[in-house]
Amino acid sequence: MRTKSGRGDVLLVCMVLFLVVFGLAVLYSTGSYNGSVRFGDAFYYMKKQFFAAALGMLAMYLISCMDYHIFEKYAIAAYLISLALSTLVLFAGNAYNGSRRWLSLGPLSFQPSEFAKLAVILFLARMVGRQKKKRNSFLNLVFVIALVLPIVALVGTNNLSTAIIILGIAVIVVFVSDKRYMQFVWIAAAGAGMMALFLGMESYRLERIAIWKNPEAYEKGYQTIQGLYAIGSGGLFGRGFGESIQKLGFVPEAQNDMIFSIICEELGFVGATILMLVFLVLIWRFMVIAVHAPDLFGSLIAAGAMGHIAIQVILNVAVVTNTIPNTGITLPFISYGGTSVLFLLSEMGLVLAVSRWQSEKKCI
Amino acid sequence: MFVKIKTFHRKKIVAVFALCMAAMLFLIGRLGYLMLLRADYYSEKAQDLHERERSIKAARGKILDCNGKVLADNKTVCTISVIHSQIKEPEKVIDVLTEELGMERDQVKKRVEKNSSIERIKTNVDKQTGDKIREYDLAGVKVDEDYKRNYPYGNLASKVLGFTGSDNQGIVGLEVKYESILKGTDGQILTMTDARGVELSDTGEGRKEPVSGKNLILSLDANLQEYAQQAAYQALEQKQADSVSIILMRPGNGEILAMVNVPEYDLNDPFNLKKSTNGMSQQEIQDERNKMWRNGCINDTYEPGSTFKIITASAALEEGVVTPEDTFSCPGFRIVDDRRIRCHKTTGHGSETFVQGVMNSCNPVFIEVGQRLGTDAFYRYFQQFGLLEKTGIDLPGEAGTIMHQKKDIGPVELATISFGQSFQITPIRLAATVCSLINGGHQITPHFGVEVREDDGTLLETLSYKEGKQIVSEQVSKTMRAILEKVVSEGGGKKAYIEGYHIGGKTATSETLPRSANKYISSFLGFVPAEDPRILGICIINNPQGVYYGGTICAPVMRTVFENILPYLGIEKEAAQETDAVRIMDQVEHLLSAE
Questions:
Q1: Sign of dihedral through CA atoms A345, A349, A350, A351?
Q2: Pair B198, B86: CB distance under 8 Å
Q3: What residue spans in chain B does CATH classification 3.90.1310.10 cover?
Q4: Which among A125, B27, B270, B460 counts the fewest CB atoms within 10 Å?
Q5: Which residue pairs from B326-331 have beta carbons closer than 8 angstroms and sit at least 24 positions apart in sequence?
Q6: Alpha-carbon distance A276 to A260, whole Å?
Q7: Whole-angstrom Cα distance, residue A66 to residue A356?
Q8: Are A2 and A299 a contacting pair, CB within 8 Å?
Q9: What mean pLDDT do residues A13-36 have?
């Protein structure tokens, strides 16, 4: 039953390579202005990203060659390490733009929350994939969610968006592992209620909602408005690669969360749609790999990765298009962030490793 | 060891994927809405945000005299500035600018080395120097062209033309009155900038060309203005007067050919008071300047004195309360109420006709004529002759008439008004009314502006003015012309007489207020040819020293002007005999018509 096919998923590799190369090109285009203004080097962001991506490709290749089952042994350890690093960053982290999210080691800096996402996927796959007793009770769900709450709380203190992503991955893994549907509807309802309560507690969060509804009326709606200007300027085919004007200081930190708006401006509706479709193909491959995985552990890794990428892409694009209130979520493979790219590519390596162990039974 | 994957797991994975796919397709739809349906809205907003407008100044329209001589045009001047971040050879830039601009090296060096986005080195640099600097093609050195108003004749008609301010906007005179015609529309260069406002070099420039202002053609004749100005300056010096004003205009249509107010000022340097301003406050300096720029013919009022008798006479003739042949008696004074109002000839003119009374400028005659008219009729003629309104001349700041309220006019006021005292009007008001009274009786509006043309000469607009209303009958007008000709040929205006011309006119001498200051304003108003006036001139000398009688000092000035300009205007001398023949013919005609 567990047969090693020897070959990873070629289409997935292609999509990942495309995204990495495309991401570097877009990052160069978007970050060249801010890079030359701030650091006197148009290639500043692109170079740093390039090294992270190169390292990530190497990691992806190595991991994809391995038998993913050996990671089961280290899953708990990885989770504990991520807890430790997330704690450490609270005390010894470097602040950038007002949030302590980075650990520095000489010239290298590292964002523990990015590692935490991968660790949580592995950890949950290990915990749920191991359960032999049938515990299809509500308690089981609560138990699994409770397992990730420490990391959600730790990351959430200074990076709410990533905490939400981690929680989302956990919910998806639990959802996949459980037979029932209805109780998830209740969970969703409860989550919505909690969210409302959470927003109501602090007035500044409600202000975010007001800005979302009418960004032009608020000073804090500046980033959103500038993003919309960029998107709206794109039209069908865009201004052309490298021709964005909104990236010239109008969209703040264009190389980070708002990079998708610049893609829209330069490549137009056609380019943006193609990128969205590439992401869709990517998560479709995750689904195929998850469905064909030989065991629940492998399947849940692929499903977790699918949830991870899908949540980030959907939330990022939703924020940039002002479909939901503004929250800082990066676009996978494209937004600037070395740690993010490194661990994303490692995650891809893990999924590729799973894809080499396909079950004979092909239902989809 | 590892749990097997079950069917429900697969179903759930597919369900998650389906959910994600739905969300992503929804977002693609949302993108389509924003990028296709809302594209116009957002891209327009973005465009507004990115574009910076830099205006290109429009050239101001020229002001030309009736012969096409340019009275006001534009000079191209350059502004030299440096953009610090674009300078590649600072030493060379400093050397070139120091040499070409003739500035201190240290001063240039300081500005070139100053770390600012753009630093102005020098403004108002003439175009030649600007072009030369541009030819060096130095990186970081900018030569911007700009227009500066230029007045080729310097002080000629300065108080009429006016000048412009730093923004090329009219400040006084015709420059401000015709601002909308002369101004033109500034153009724009649209450039794209980044968020810091730095222009992007590789984006295409949108350009909206400036539209030059239109040229204004005046009735003013630079030659006549020059003659008149010379004569005025001469009189100013000879009589040590405060100021001398001369107006030359066409009685038929109100076109002004010359308007001199000496001392004039230099239009190319209008803020220079030409005297020390030490110890003067800013306000005092500004007051002095306003005084220097003032157009006495329009902005100031005075007691017209005897020239006003033209109006009293016309009103009385029109009303029929007097005929030229009526006889009066002047004992040298006249008692009105309890006052004894003297005639200038204290021994009296004795018995005289009305015509002789005008020739003698006899006050008692006019007091009686005024009494015959009465307050009501006199006031009615004031209104009819437009004396209570402004003339509507196309210059800013025309002063209104200062006149008694009708209810306040008692016998004394009526008497003094009759010979032009106790109220004030502007010289242009007097000239305009007299024009109407002698041109056959129709109202005119004194004016300078005649036509608006493109620079290539295409006629755009012929300016029109209120005129044509009959304010006095043609017969009275004709009588007045005849009487006033006698004033010059035989009466008080003799010094304006030129052999071979029929000149009509009236002199005046009035004492300014307060009377105790013993300051006088002397004037003479004349027109040629008396039968069919083609030009009317008025000369006013303000505070002359020594002899101050209008007939003695102003009439000769006007004669000099007329002598010079009449041939130029094509008004030919008539042979003496012919003149007499015409006069005899006139008299015969007159007798015939009387019968």
A1: positive
A2: no
A3: 54-184+202-218
A4: B460
A5: B326/B353, B326/B354, B327/B351, B327/B352, B327/B353, B327/B354, B328/B352, B328/B353, B328/B354, B328/B357, B328/B362, B328/B364, B328/B365, B328/B368, B329/B364, B330/B357, B330/B360, B330/B362, B330/B364, B330/B365, B331/B364
A6: 10
A7: 10
A8: no
A9: 92
A291–B14 CB contact, under 8 Å: yes
Q: Is B406 on the interface with A (CB under 8 A)?
A: no
Pick A129's closest partner by Cβ from B2, B16, B194.
Answer: B2
The token duo for A17 is 């390579």
The reported pLDDT for the residue numbered A161 is 84
> Is A360 contained in some domain?
no
Q: Is pLDDT larger for residue A340 or for residue A216?
A: A340
Segment B265-300, tens digit of pLDDT: 999 888 888 777 788 888 888 998 999 999 999 999
Is A232 within 8 Å of B35 when comparing Cβ atoms? yes
Is B12 touching A (CB cutoff 8 A)? Answer: yes
Q: Is B568 on the interface with A (CB under 8 A)?
A: no
A363 part of a folded domain = no
CA dihedral of A318, A322, A327, A329, whole degrees rounded to 10: 40
Q: Do A164 and A331 form a contact (C-beta atoms < 8 A)?
A: no
For residues B456-480, b (16+ Cβ closer than 10 Å) or e, as one string? eeeeeeebebebeeebbeeebbbbb
* Banded pLDDT at B184 (limits 50, 70, 90): confident
| CATH 3.40.710.10 residue spans of chain B | 224-264+295-452+459-594
As for how many domains chain A has, the answer is 1
Give the model confidence (pLDDT) of B378-403 as tens digits: 999 999 999 999 999 999 999 999 98
The number of angstroms, rounded, from the C-alpha of A244 to the middle of its chain's C-alpha atoms is 25
- pLDDT of B131: 86
Architecture of domain B224-264+295-452+459-594: 3-Layer(aba) Sandwich (3.40)
Evaluate whether residue A362 is within a structural domain. Answer: no
Q: Which of B20, B27, B32 sits opposite A269 (nearest CB)?
A: B32
Nearest to B27 among A130, A286, A318 (CB): A318
Amino acid residing at B161? L
Catalytic residues of B, by residue number, are: 306
ipTM of the assembly?
0.92
CA dihedral angle for residue A263, residue A269, residue A274, residue A278, rounded to 10 degrees: 60
Strand (E) or helix (H) holding B120 = strand B119-126
In chain A, what residues touch B18 (CB-CB under 8 Å)? Answer: none
Distances (CA, A) of A172 to A175, B7, B281: 5, 17, 83
Q: Do B17 and A177 touch (CB under 8 A)?
A: no
Measured over the CA atoms of residue B547, residue B549, residue B551 and residue B556, the dihedral's sign is positive
Q: Tell me which chain A residue has its CA closest to the CA of residue B49.
A: A250
The letter for the amino acid at B10 is: R
Does B46 contact A272 at a Cβ distance shorter than 8 Å? no
Structure tokens belonging to residue B415: 């008497």
Residue B224 CA to residue B153 CA, distance in Å, equals 13
Please indicate whether, in this complex, the C-beta atoms of A249 and B196 are within 8 angstroms of each other. yes
**What pLDDT sits at residue A205?**
67
CATH architecture classification, B54-184+202-218? Alpha-Beta Complex (3.90)
Query: What sign does the CA torsion over A151, A154, A159, A161 have?
Result: positive
The neighbour count for residue B265, using CB atoms within 10 Å, is 20
Question: Would you call B52 an interface residue with chain A, using a CB distance cutoff of 8 Å?
Answer: no
- Among B10, B23, B31, whose Cβ lies nearest the Cβ of A364? B10
Looking at CA atoms only, how far is residue A104 from chain B in angstroms? 32
